[in-house]
Specification:
The radius of gyration is 24 Å and the shape is elongated. Helix 5 packs across helix 7, helix 6 (102-112) runs parallel beside helix 11 and helix 8 (138-148) packs antiparallel against helix 9 (152-167). The chain has 332 residues and is of the alpha+beta class. The longest helix has 42 residues, at 2-43. The relative contact order is 0.12. It is built from 14 helices and 7 strands. The chain has helices at residues 2-43, 48-56, 62-69, 78-85, 88-100, 102-112, 116-127, 138-148, 152-167, 191-197, 213-226, 258-263, 299-307, 311-325, and strands at residues 136-137, 177-178, 236-240, 251-257, 267-268, 281-285, 294-297. The strands form 2 sheets. Strands 4-6-7-3-5 form a 5-stranded antiparallel sheet. Strands 1-2 form a two-stranded antiparallel ribbon. It folds into 3 domains: 22-71 and 134-197, Helicase, Ruva Protein, domain 3, CATH 1.10.8; 78-132 and 203-226, no CATH class; 236-297, no CATH class.
C-alpha cells in the first residue's frame, strides 16, 4: 500500500512539474509566434512603427483563455433574461441618460434617422451606459485568442484591425482597453466593426468610441442605418394570440400586414393597437417555448439581430427602448 501511495505521489509530482514547465514555456512560444504576426501585419500595410510598438510589449494572458474556455451557457428563460437586461432600474437610468444627451442624440437622429431611445438602449445593455466597458488590453487579449483559441483566424484578423486603429492614431495603445474578447468602447465594437462603421462625429480626425459620446453615438447610429434601419418604425410589439391559431403562421419568414394579423385575432399588449400602422409588414415569433410569449417583429428587429444574433438580445433592446420612451409619447 505504501509503495502504491509513493508511486501515486511521484506521478502527481511529475504531472505538476510538467504542467508548470508547460505554463512557463507558453510565453516563449507566444513571443515567437508574435514575430510571424508582426511580419504579416507589415505586409498588409500597417506601419512598422505601429506594429512594433503594439506587439513589443504584448503579453499572453492566461486569464483570457480561462474566460474563453469557461464562457457561461445562457440557460435563462426569456423572462429571466429580459428582467436582468431590461430591468426597471436600467429603464430609469436610461431615461435620465436620454434627457442628459438629448441635444446630441437629436443631432445624430437628424443625420442617420435612428431614434435616440434605441441608441441609449444599446448603450445601456452593452456597457451599463459606459460604466462597464472592459479593462483588458485589447492587443494582448486578441493576440492571446489568435494564438490559442479555436477561432485563430477570426481573432488574428481582429488583431490586425486593432493594429490599424492604432496606426491611424484613433486611440493611444495604453488607452485601448476592452472586454476579454476584444470588444471596445461604450458600444462594445469589435475592431472589424470599428473599421466598417465607426464615425468621427466632431471632425477632429480621431474616432474615440471609448470616451467621446458623439463618436460613440454616431458610430452606433451609422451601424444601424447602414444595416437597413427604417426611420420612425419601431422594432415590434408583444402580442396575444387567439386560442385557435395556425402554427404555420409563426416564424420570421411568415410575413403579413398588421391589418392581416389583426384580422387573424392577434392583439397587442400594453395598449398597442395593430390598427395604428395597418400597412406594416410583420412576422410573428415565439422565441422561448418555456415562456410562450409572442411578438410581432418589424424590419428594424432584423437590423438589431445584425448587431447581435440573439432573439433574446433583440427583444430586450426593443423592450428597453420602449421603457426608456415611457409615457413621453413625443419622444422618439
Amino acid at each position: 500500500m505504501r509503495k502504491r501511495k509513493l508511486i501515486l505521489v511521484t506521478v502527481l509530482l511529475y504531472a505538476t512539474v510538467a504542467a508548470s514547465e508547460l505554463k512557463a514555456a507558453e510565453p516563449e512560444k507566444f513571443q515567437a509566434w508574435l514575430g510571424e504576426v508582426r511580419s504579416q501585419a507589415i505586409r498588409q500595410g500597417i506601419s512598422q512603427g505601429a506594429v512594433d510598438k503594439a506587439l513589443a510589449g504584448a503579453n499572453y494572458l492566461p486569464e483570457v483563455m480561462e474566460l474563453y474556455r469557461n464562457q457561461p451557457e445562457f440557460k435563462l428563460t426569456l423572462d429571466e433574461y429580459v428582467n436582468r437586461v431590461a430591468s426597471e432600474s436600467r429603464i430609469s437610468l436610461g431615461r435620465k441618460k436620454l434627457n442628459e444627451h438629448r441635444a446630441l442624440l437629436e443631432d445624430v437622429y437628424s443625420r442617420y434617422q435612428v431614434e435616440p431611445r434605441f441608441i441609449v438602449a444599446l448603450w445601456g445593455i452593452e456597457s451599463e451606459f459606459g460604466q462597464i466597458s472592459g479593462g483588458f488590453p485589447v492587443i494582448d487579449s486578441l493576440a492571446t485568442l489568435a494564438y490559442a483559441s479555436s477561432r485563430k483566424d477570426f481573432y488574428r484578423q481582429e488583431l490586425f484591425n486593432a493594429l490599424r486603429i492604432l496606426d491611424k492614431g484613433h486611440i493611444p495603445l495604453d488607452r485601448m482597453k476592452g472586454s476579454w474578447a476584444g470588444a471596445m468602447g461604450k458600444l462594445q465594437f469589435m475592431p472589424s466593426t470599428f473599421q466598417s462603421f465607426a464615425v468621427d462625429y466632431d471632425g477632429d480626425g480621431k474616432i474615440d468610441i471609448w470616451n467621446d459620446m458623439g463618436d460613440a453615438f454616431v458610430s452606433a447610429a451609422n451601424y444601424l442605418f447602414r444595416s437597413g434601419w427604417v426611420k420612425d418604425q419601431t422594432w415590434g410589439m408583444e402580442v396575444t394570440l387567439p386560442s385557435e391559431f395556425k402554427r404555420n403562421m409563426r416564424g420570421p419568414n411568415a410575413k403579413k400586414l398588421l391589418s392581416e394579423w389583426k384580422a387573424a385575432g392577434v392583439r397587442g399588449v400594453r395598449d398597442q393597437d395593430l390598427a395604428d400602422h395597418p400597412d406594416y409588414p410583420a412576422s410573428l415569433i415565439e422565441p422561448d417555448p418555456k415562456v410562450r410569449r409572442a411578438f410581432l417583429i418589424f424590419a428594424n428587429y432584423n437590423v438589431i439581430l445584425k448587431w447581435n444574433r440573439s432573439d433574446f438580445f433583440a427583444i430586450a433592446v426593443g423592450l428597453l427602448a420602449d421603457g426608456i420612451r415611457g409615457q413621453k409619447t413625443e419622444d422618439r
